């Protein structure tokens, strides 16, 4: 068993597509609900940007890292929040990381909504997987509940 947390690095094509999707969101065009996340880098102190799929479940909003413990996740843990942008609309927010034991329903609904895009990062787990399978996948996929600042 690896001591390193799960992280699946994007291919060159995926990285290029993410930069295009982020650029579109930054300029006001959200594809299927995407937004651009900005979070302060824990080492550089500079704002780092990445496209994300904000997810709503039972009235709360979440950010889920399909690829695992990525740099934006590590930065988010250090910063405690960031900004979501679509065009000129910028929403600053704070986060609380959701414990693995509470992720099952959020992950299931996320996979129902975004599975067409992210199933490949979940090692065979889908929206139709059992609660036990989703719970087993939970440690590999950080989930943050966001609260938009007033």
Protein architecture, described:
The protein is of the alpha+beta class. The protein contains 4 helices and 7 strands. It is globular and about 40 Å long. The longest helix is centred in the N-terminal third of the chain and has 15 residues. It has a 7-stranded antiparallel sheet, with helices on both faces. Helices cover 31% and strands 27% of the residues. The model has no long low-confidence stretch (mean pLDDT 94). Helix 3 packs across helix 4.
Descriptive keywords:
31% helix; alpha+beta; 150 residues; 4 helices
Strand order of the largest sheet: 2-1-5-6-7-4-3
Low confidence ranges:
none
Gyration radius, to the nearest Å?
15 Å
Alpha-carbon distance between the termini?
Answer: 44 Å
SS summary, helix count: 4
Class of secondary structure makeup: alpha+beta
Task: Describe this structure in a few short sentences.
By secondary structure, the chain is α+β, with helices and mostly antiparallel strands. The protein is built from four helices and seven strands, in the order αββββαββααβ.
């Amino acid at each position: 068993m690896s001591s390193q947390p799960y992280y699946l690095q994007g291919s060159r094509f995926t990285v290029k597509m993410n930069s295009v999707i982020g650029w579109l969101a930054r300029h006001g065009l959200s594809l299927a609900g995407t937004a651009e996340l900005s979070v302060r880098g824990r080492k550089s102190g500079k704002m780092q940007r990445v496209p994300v799929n904000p997810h709503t479940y039972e009235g709360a909003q979440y950010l889920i890292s399909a690829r695992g413990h990525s740099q934006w996740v590590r930065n988010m843990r250090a910063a405690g929040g960031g900004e979501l942008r679509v065009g000129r609309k910028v929403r600053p927010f704070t986060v609380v990381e959701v414990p693995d034991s509470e992720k099952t329903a959020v992950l299931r609904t996320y996979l129902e909504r975004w599975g067409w895009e992210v199933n490949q990062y979940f090692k065979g787990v889908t929206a139709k997987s059992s609660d036990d399978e989703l719970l087993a996948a939970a440690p590999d996929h950080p989930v943050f509940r966001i609260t938009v600042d007033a």
